[in-house]
Amino acid sequence: MAEIPGAWSPSEINLSKANAVIEATKASGNLYRNGLGMIASENIISPMVQKVVCSDLHGRYAEGLPGKRYYQGCDDFDTIESIGIDLAKKVFNANFANIQSISGTVSNIAALKALAKPGDKITAVSTADGGHISHARMGAVGLRDLDLSTYPWDIDRMEPDVDGACKLIRELNPKVCLIGQSVFLFPTPLKEIAAAAHEVGAKVMYDGAHVLGLIAGGQFQDPLREGADIMTGSSHKTFPGPQGGFLLSSSQDDSMHRKLNNAIFPGTCSSYHLHHVAGKVIALAEFEEYGETYARDIVRNAQALGQCLAAEGFDVLAEGRNYTASHQVLTRHGEIDSGAGARAAQLLEDAGIVTNMNMLPGDTKAMTPSGLRLGVQELTRVGMGVNEMAEVARLFAKVILEEKDPSAVKMEVIELKSNFQTIRYCFNEEEQSGYVL
Ligand SMILES: *Cc1c(COP(=O)(O)O)cnc(C)c1O
Fold first, then answer.
1. Span from the CA of 373 to the centroid of ligand 1 (angstroms)
2. pLDDT value at position 431?
3. Among 234, 247, 326, 377, which residue has the most ligand 1 atoms within 8 Å of its CB, making it the best to mutate?
4. In the chain, which residues have pLDDT < 50?
5. Domains and CATH numbers, the chain
């Protein structure tokens, strides 16, 4: 009798590896369920988004655009993507939206493919000043073989030096002026820079990866009306959707729209992760409903956290500008290049508070920086407000300034977090089911 493949008993070794993955996934969920997630680029997804992200769409393909597909079976997905394109245009107030990009980085690669040719000049914020790796030679800019120059930086204002940036653009005649950072405390003075860029015929590309939710919620700046031709971004940072990207434009020009669509497919994606696209569309619908409130609460919490950390005795950057106008707060924990940020991040993790070390102005080494970058978008998402920001600052002080035993502080973290287990600013608010299997 022929053996039935399904009846084979699995190898113990491989089954145990698979089980180890399940166990580690549960443990990772518990870390965030019981702890304070304060990585500025992260967020959690709503119960409705979770549903489609775990759906059959995961295994499907839909190359092309709604109504113009290469495969059969796409009619239902056409409905999803069409709703999504309309919603994205509305939420971001854009004339063009492509919602297929699988990440912010892919959106950037696509935008650079549409806007520039290898060898063209580009200006951007340096990674040392907070620019993203995709704006650097080691990332997308290098991948397109673009000739990069970086803007001078105003350390006090934590933004590009406007006069210096405009002068650079006028001298250089770049093809693309890239704006936006990963360390992003304040809106960029975009109007002046965009005017200089357009004067020399350059396109202005604004990377809103971090601040996309704040922009859509009307709480940061409005790049597409301040001179940006293209806006790229991630769908999972302050915009609280599943991981992915957006590619948006203020252009009315059909040929530019075609260029941008072609830069995503066939340019940079084949499968574009349909389950995540469906998740993005639900997140857009939820954002239409709750986004403005969410964005307002995030900025209010970030400013409160900055003030409370300073009151506890921490060195918080940009005191003169009320610390922040975004979801981020930066703290300095020691001398330049001392690694004090790395040590602080480890102590905090031991207490159940997850942050990342970050280079601050003057630091030259990414692995031994002096600072921390904190984000409040996830804590806000589970309902924390300004009172809780004061409690969070107190916990930071206990761990770092008072050198209390992190495992003792962890008990207080778990206690605080136990009251914030519901995902807010979404349809069907529910307990944080996404954290556990
Ligand atoms: C996070 C980030 C990106 C990349 O986004 P992914 O979705 O992680 O690929 C791009 N640009 C900036 C400024 C970022 O901070």
1. 15
2. 78
3. 234
4. none
5. 50-286 (3.40.640.10), 291-429 (3.90.1150.10)
